[in-house]
Amino acid sequence: MFRLRLHPTRSGFAIGIAVIALWALLWLWFFAQLDNNGSLASAPWAGTSGPELTLRQLGGPAA
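Given the sequence above, the corresponding structure tokens read:
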């Protein structure tokens, strides 16, 4: 049924490898963006970076 065997040319093989490499780089970039967004979104809650309010500033009982 299949008498002809498909053999890619050198340029076709190089283009195919380049497409696969580009695809892999896009996936790596996608996963890196997911990791960055997760850490940036949780960064403000990680520590006390803003000013702290005391009871006196809140109008609580003065000690």
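Residues 52 and 58 are 11 Å apart (CA to CA). Try to locate this feature in the token string yourself.
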